[in-house]
C-alpha cells in the first residue's frame, strides 16, 4: 500500500482496478478519510481492523476481488454507512465484533456463504442488503429474511435469494450423528463397573457399527456436496469475478 502519511486532509482513496494482492496495515491515521475503494483487485485475505485507522470512514468497497477470508477482529467504524464485499469467494463471514451502528447498506452477494454471523443484528440502521447467489443454509436464510422484513429492510432481487437445501440436510445429518454418538457413550460401562452384560455389550457393538457406517456415509456425502458446491460456485465466479 502507498504511504499516505502526508495527506491528513485526504477524504477519498481509490485503488480500484490494480493488481493488489495483499493489504498491509495502513501507515497513517487519516482522520478525514470517508471513502475507500479497493475493488477489482486480487486480494485474498482482508483484516478489517486495519480500517480502524480511519475513524470517519463511511464507505468500503471490496467488491470483485478474490477474497476467501475476512478476519473476525474487532472493527471500530461508527460512521461506516456502506460495505460491499460482493463478487468474491467467501465461505464465511462474521460481523459479530463490528461496532458499525451507522451501516445502511451491506452487499455480500455472489460469494459462497452459508451464513453470515451477527447479521443483521449488528446493523440497527440497515436499510438495504444484497444477498443473491450464495448457497445459504435454509433455516438461517428464513430467519434472516423474516427479521429484515420486520425491520422494513430492502432485499435487492429478493426473488432470486435462495437457499441450498443440501447444506441444511447435511447439518441435520451431522446432528443425527452426534445424537447417536451420545447414545453410544451412555451405553459404555462406567469406570466403577466390571463391564457390560453380554447383551449390553452386543447392543453397544451394534450401535458402534451403526455409528461407523453412518460416519462413513457422512464423510462421503460431505465430500460430494463440497465438490458439487465448488463446481457450481466456481462457474458462477468465473462468470462474475475478473
Automatic annotation (TrEMBL):
Pfam families: LRR_8. SUPFAM superfamilies: L domain-like. PROSITE patterns: LRR. The keyword Mitochondrion does not apply. Keywords: Leucine-rich repeat, Repeat. This is Leucine-rich immune protein (Short). The lineage of its organism: Eukaryota, Metazoa, Ecdysozoa, Arthropoda, Hexapoda.
Amino acid at each position: 500500500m502507498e504511504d499516505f502519511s502526508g495527506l491528513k486532509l485526504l477524504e477519498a482513496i481509490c485503488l480500484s482496478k490494480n493488481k493488489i494482492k495483499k493489504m498491509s496495515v495502513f501507515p497513517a491515521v487519516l482522520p478525514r478519510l470517508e471513502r475507500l475503494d479497493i475493488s477489482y483487485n486480487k486480494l485474498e485475505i482482508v483484516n478489517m481492523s486495519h480500517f480502524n485507522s480511519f475513524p470517519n470512514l463511511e464507505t468500503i468497497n471490496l467488491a470483485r476481488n478474490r477474497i476467501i477470508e475476512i478476519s473476525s477482529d474487532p472493527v471500530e467504524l461508527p460512521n461506516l454507512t456502506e460495505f460491499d464485499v460482493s463478487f468474491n469467494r467467501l465461505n464465511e463471514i462474521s460481523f459479530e465484533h463490528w461496532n458499525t451502528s451507522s451501516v445502511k447498506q451491506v452487499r455480500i452477494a455472489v460469494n459462497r456463504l452459508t451464513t453470515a454471523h451477527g447479521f443483521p443484528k449488528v446493523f440497527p440502521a440497515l436499510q438495504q442488503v444484497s444477498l443473491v447467489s450464495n448457497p445459504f443454509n435454509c433455516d438461517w436464510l428464513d430467519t434472516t429474511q423474516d427479521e429484515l422484513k420486520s425491520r422494513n429492510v430492502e432485499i435487492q432481487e429478493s426473488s432470486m435469494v435462495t437457499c441450498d437445501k443440501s447444506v441444511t440436510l447435511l447439518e441435520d445429518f451431522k446432528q443425527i450423528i452426534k445424537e447417536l454418538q451420545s447414545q453410544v457413550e451412555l451405553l459404555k460401562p462406567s469406570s466403577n463397573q466390571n463391564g457390560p452384560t453380554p447383551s449390553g455389550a452386543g447392543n453397544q457393538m451394534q450401535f458402534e457399527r451403526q455409528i461407523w457406517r453412518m460416519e462413513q456415509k457422512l464423510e462421503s456425502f460431505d465430500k460430494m456436496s463440497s465438490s458439487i458446491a465448488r463446481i457450481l460456485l466456481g462457474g458462477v465466479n468465473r462468470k462474475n469475478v475478473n
